[in-house]
Amino acid sequence: MTDIAWDRTVFFLFPPDAVLRHLCAPVLAVLEDHGFEPVRYEVLWHRPPNQDALHERKITSVWKAYFYRQVDLVFELGPSLALLVEDRSAAVDSHTRLRALKGASDPASAAPGTIRRDLRGVNVLLDIVHSSDTPDDSRHEAGVFFGPELGTPLHGDQRELRDLVAMLEAGHPRENREFDQVRAGLRSRVVAAVWHELDAEGRKLAPELAASYRPDAGAELAALLPVGHPLAALLACEFLPDLPGIDLPRAEAHLAVYGVTLDRWERAVLRSSMLFSPLRSG
């Protein structure tokens, strides 16, 4: 493996949600401002074949298996960008410094001024960035994502990386929707699809309820439908942990009858937020 000073070099990953949201460039600017310079890179167009090796410790000691499989949702969103970044500052403990800069894994718990809070990660899975916690972790994770050659060296040419990021992001319309916007959008499409099944009073109440962020708005919305309606459970679902969830693939089959579909971002946000609390609007 290429000789790397791992005490000053950190493995850093832009998962597909960062690319889809066009957040790579602003994060790179933050890294530069704090003395971290990308020196190697690799684009991954699919789920890394040895991804399980990256999460081995969490799979065996932290996560339940069905939690871990949610990671696949993220890599289904599109390409990711792996980097090695060197700490050019005079500060000590590069990994700890970068960990503090990115913020807590849960964006709602991350402090203001951190990447995940300021750029508004969605939840623990869709949290914009990943970086290794220790030099040993960086060495291990670089091997998982780069292989033995450790990707493409930049030789100090940051323009090459900026151009690559621009091309990756240009391939996808910028995704601006957070959890609350995704949920409200789905509810609004469902209400429009069943509009003819609502009575006059229901048509007056439904638009405000579909857009509302307040608890139980979904249940009130579902109550406007005829008893036993196949989409009632979907409208009532809050898509939050510790509240009744829903089998989303099965619900999508009911939606298809009405001509309503979910896009890949909606699917990832809603499924992951039933397990991991999302950062909320307002």
Any descriptors?
282 residues, Alpha-Beta Plaits, five-stranded antiparallel beta sheet, elongated, 2 domains, alpha+beta, single chain, 5 strands, 10% strand
Describe this structure in words.
The chain is of the alpha+beta class and 282 residues long. The chain folds into two domains: 9-170, Nucleoside diphosphate kinase-like domain (Alpha-Beta Plaits, 2-Layer Sandwich); 179-273, no CATH class. Helices cover 46% and strands 10% of the residues. The chain has 16 helices and five strands. The protein has helices at 16-20, 24-33, 51-54, 56-61, 65-69, 71-75, 94-102, 115-118, 135-146, 158-170, 179-193, 200-211, 217-222, 232-236, 248-257, 264-273, and strands at 9-14, 36-44, 80-87, 130-131, 152-153. A five-stranded antiparallel beta sheet has the order 4-1-3-2-5, sandwiched between helices. The longest helix has 15 residues, at 179-193. The chain is elongated, with a radius of gyration of 21 Å.
Can you give the mean pLDDT? Answer: 91
Number of helices: 16
Major beta sheet summary = 5 strands, antiparallel
Rg from Cα? 21 Å
Helix content: 40-55%
Could you say what the CATH topology of the largest domain is called?
Alpha-Beta Plaits
Summarize the structure.
The protein has 2 domains: 9-170, Alpha-Beta Plaits (2-Layer Sandwich); 179-273, no CATH class.
